[in-house]
Amino acid sequence: MGDTAVEPADALAVFDRWYDAHESGDVPALREVLGDDVEVHSMFRPEPARSRDAAVAHFLRTTTVTFPGLAMGLVSTPAAAGDGAVLAEVVFAGTFTGELTWRGRVHRGAGQRFSLPGVVVIRTRGEAVISVKTLYDRDDWLRQIDVPVC
């Protein structure tokens, strides 16, 4: 994803634009901050959403259909590295109302609320986000939305 040195302040500015757009649901601003070749990694997709259009579609589906009201509250001040990576501790909170396929079975949400700690890691290049990864305790989350973990 690139070994070019990036000023941490520049990477943090890109993170702030991405985070503000994500949390406010500002799709045009989100589209603007995503790189053409962005990859959004999800624990429940076999392949990342690759491209700006695929990332925006993933965001819209996730925040309006599957997990309405999904929020990613910052717990820590984001930290940036010289390679354009930014890491922040967050709390994911929302409601499960969509469909989720887990271990070959489709689970339909019935409004189950969830709240769990996690981490978001983005990678930046220039003025754009080129990668998004969210990490959390998957089994804890599945239990909160009434999906059997075994």
- Intertermini distance: 35 Å
Largest β-sheet summary: 7 strands, mixed
Number of domains: 1
The average pLDDT score comes to 93
Count of extended strands: 9
| Helix/strand order | HHEEHEEEEEEEH
Q: Tell me the structural class.
A: alpha+beta
What is the CATH topology descriptor? Nuclear Transport Factor 2, Chain: A
Q: Looking at the structure, what is the overall shape?
A: globular
Beta-strand portion reads: 35-45%
CATH architecture: Roll
Helix content: 25-40%
Q: What does the radius of gyration come to?
A: 15 Å
How many helices?
Answer: 4
Low-confidence stretches: none
Keywords:
Nuclear Transport Factor 2, Chain: A; two-stranded antiparallel sheet; 4 helices; 150 residues
If you had to describe this structure to a student in words, what would you say it looks like?
The protein is of the alpha+beta class and 150 residues long. It has a single domain (8-144), classed as Nuclear Transport Factor 2, Chain: A, CATH 3.10.450. It is 31% helix and 39% strand. Strands 1, 2, 3, 4, 5, 8 and 9 form a 7-stranded mixed β-sheet that branches. A two-stranded antiparallel sheet has the order 6-7. Strand 8 (112-125) and strand 9 form a beta hairpin. It is globular and about 45 Å long. It starts with 7 loop residues before the first helix and ends in a 6-residue tail after the last helix.
